[in-house]
């Protein structure tokens, strides 16, 4: 029997809808996943079968083939566990396949059948709404993140058995509601008002903040270069809702989103001088955001500038000039946003003092 469900993964900083096609037929027992699946996704067959069994559901010994479409895009998200499990149950006739077209599933499964949170839920939810899905099922850890997208019903799952009960009409689930956040007063942990003196440097940073200019701070150790740079974000304009959503998507894909809420404070990134070129601009077999993208709409601070490697500095030319970075890898070419203010700090000479 054939069944189809829908999951999602990330491509760059955007979501991508994945069609999970499941076919179960008589033959030698087997479980194959095709469609350019990464090792993380291929391991899903063991997680899914064990999770279904430990949820009290017995499957027949049949030949199972799962296709992840589009087949020319590499999939590397453990969030495909849940749509694969639901598709397998639908192919066996244990849940109705007729109602699955309007739902999107995204969660990792434990061997016990519990649903675990994954990274990249926000761009997946944005894409789900654009694609016309009416509801999205996610792990409880990801529910606040998915609720940032208006007009999409979000269901929080604790385990696979809970979802099966809902799909078979034996259990009732209520869509999650956004939590009302307390009003924020714009209090920064590093506030520009804390800086005493340094009037010339403060004036330079104020001009840079107003015009979006890059800054080089040169001075002896203890002059206050790092203190000033860390407080630059507090004098930048507040992010618009569109900018805040864009930054939150980036941090969601990178797995750095804490609490699942919308990021409203402009990012500040300060990579160590041993940071590699790939870590600076992003990369990997499936490209992930680097430091320049994590600093998007915020500040990238390079302390001890002369200590950074030559390659790490040379790759900054494109994002500083074009406000974006394009990365070409074997499995595709990605363009990441990098609209940032670059602040660098250096000592006047290698001995750290004013010589000559």
Helix-strand blueprint:
Blueprint: E1 2-11, E2 14-25, E3 30-34, H1 39-42, H2 44-54, E4 63-69, H3 81-91, E5 103-106, E6 108-109, E7 115-116, H4 121-130, E8 135-139, H5 143-146, E9 153-157, H6 160-167, H7 199-211, E10 215-218, H8 225-230, H9 241-253, E11 268-269, H10 277-281, E12 282-283, E13 288-289, H11 291-294, E14 299-302, H12 310-314, H13 317-322, E15 324-329, E16 332-337, E17 341-346
Parallel strand pairs: 3-4, 5-8, 8-9, 10-17, 11-14, 14-17
Antiparallel strand pairs: 1-2, 2-4, 6-7, 12-13, 15-16
Helix pairs in contact: 2-3
What does this protein structure show overall?
The structure is a single chain. This protein is about 30% helix and about 25% strand. It is an alpha/beta fold. α2 (about 45-55) crosses α3. It is elongated and about 80 Å long. The mean pLDDT is about 90.
| Strand elements, count | 17
The description of the largest β-sheet is: 4 strands, mixed
Mean pLDDT: 91
Structural class, by secondary structure, is alpha/beta
Radius of gyration: 24 Å
Portion of residues within helices: 25-40%
What general outline do the C-alpha atoms trace? elongated
Contiguous low-pLDDT stretches (5 residues minimum) are none
Strand content: 15-25%
Spatial order of the strands forming the largest sheet: 1-2-4-3
Counting DSSP H or I runs of 4 or more residues, the number of helices is: 13
The sequence of SSEs as H and E is EEEHHEHEEEHEHEHHEHHEHEEHEHHEEE
* Cα end-to-end separation: 83 Å
């Amino acid at each position: 029997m054939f069944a189809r469900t829908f999951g999602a993964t990330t491509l760059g900083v955007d979501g991508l809808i994945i069609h999970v096609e499941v076919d179960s037929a008589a033959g030698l027992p087997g479980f194959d996943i095709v469609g350019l699946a990464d090792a993380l996704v291929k391991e899903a067959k063991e997680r899914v079968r064990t999770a279904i069994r430990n949820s009290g559901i017995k499957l027949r010994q049949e030949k199972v083939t799962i296709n992840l479409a589009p087949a020319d895009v590499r999939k590397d998200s453990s969030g495909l566990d849940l749509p694969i499990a639901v598709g397998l149950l639908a192919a066996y006739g244990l849940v109705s396949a007729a109602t699955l077209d309007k739902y999107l599933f995204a969660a990792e499964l434990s061997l016990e059948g519990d649903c675990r949170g994954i990274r990249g839920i926000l761009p997946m939810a944005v894409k789900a709404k654009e694609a016309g899905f009416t509801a999205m099922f996610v792990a409880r850890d990801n529910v606040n993140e998915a609720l940032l997208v208006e007009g999409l019903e979000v269901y929080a799952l604790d385990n696979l058995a809970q979802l099966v009960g809902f799909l078979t009409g034996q259990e009732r689930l209520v869509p999650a509601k956004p939590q009302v956040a307390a009003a924020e007063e714009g209090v920064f942990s590093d506030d520009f008002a804390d800086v005493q003196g340094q009037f010339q440097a403060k004036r330079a940073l104020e001009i840079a903040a107003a015009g979006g200019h890059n800054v080089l701070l040169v001075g002896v150790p203890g002059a206050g270069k790092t203190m000033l740079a860390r407080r630059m974000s507090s004098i930048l304009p507040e992010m618009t809702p569109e900018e805040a959503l864009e930054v939150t998507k980036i941090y969601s894909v990178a797995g750095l989103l804490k609490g699942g809420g919308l990021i409203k404070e402009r990012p500040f990134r300060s990579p160590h001088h041993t940071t590699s070129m790939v870590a600076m601009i992003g990369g990997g077999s499936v490209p992930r955001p680097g430091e320049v993208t994590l600093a998007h709409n915020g500040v990238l601070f390079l302390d001890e500038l002369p200590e950074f490697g030559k390659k790490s500095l040379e790759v900054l030319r494109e994002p500083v000039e074009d406000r974006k970075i394009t990365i070409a890898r074997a499995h595709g070419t990605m363009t990441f946003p990098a609209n940032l203010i670059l602040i660098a700090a250096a000592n006047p000479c290698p001995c750290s003092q004013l010589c000559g």
